[in-house]
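Make up an example, fold above all:
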Amino acid sequence: MKKFLAFLICLNFAVMPVCAITDDFASSSLDKNLKIKSAQTAAITDEFVENTLDKTLKIKQTKYIPINDDFAQNNTKKNQSTVKIVDYQEIIPVVSNKKRKTKKVVIDENNMEKVLIRVKEPFTTKKQNVDEGDYIEFETVKDAFIKNKHYPKGTVVNGRIETISLNKSWGVPADLVIGNFTINETRLAGEINKTGANRSLWVYPSVYAGCLFFFAGLLLIPIRGGHAKLKPKETFVLYADK
């Protein structure tokens, strides 16, 4: 049995194909005697170098041929641009060194007639659709004499909203400025300024102090200031020329 197995193994080796390993680089560079073949070098030619350099590697002298433009030569006398030299003088305004004076309007109560007014209906900046330039109706509290003309009690006086700013968070109040008063197209001097409750005086310190305790002061930031209000009980003084 052992002899039979040995015979089969030998038969397998006899049947196995033989693989030859070839090296292209070695076969191209070595001959049969395993010596390096003599390499044949090919000459490199450069047309640009041959045309520009001579045998001593110096630049050849070339002749430059001028290029003539018939169209340009025929039109040299046409469309010649003319240049005019203009002298521009820049006049810089001279700033005066004198101090500017502003006139201050002073109302002399002795030479003017006092006009007492009050708002006809309660007004507050909380109302919607109120903007600068709108008019508010007032009425005279007492009889007034302006330029020898009698205005009885209850005469309508129109006042224009010059400035209005709504209340904001952090306790910032609303502001209201009313001016440009007229009574029957007669202008009256004076101005009404109203400001809402200024809660920022205690909101700011409370917020900063409350932030020391787990940022509890942030809950006070949304608190808004008060609205500017006009009540019929309030009386305001305006002035008119006698």
User: Anything to note?
Assistant: The chain has a mean pLDDT of 79. The two ends are 152 Å apart (CA to CA). The CA atoms of residues 164 and 176 lie 5 Å apart.
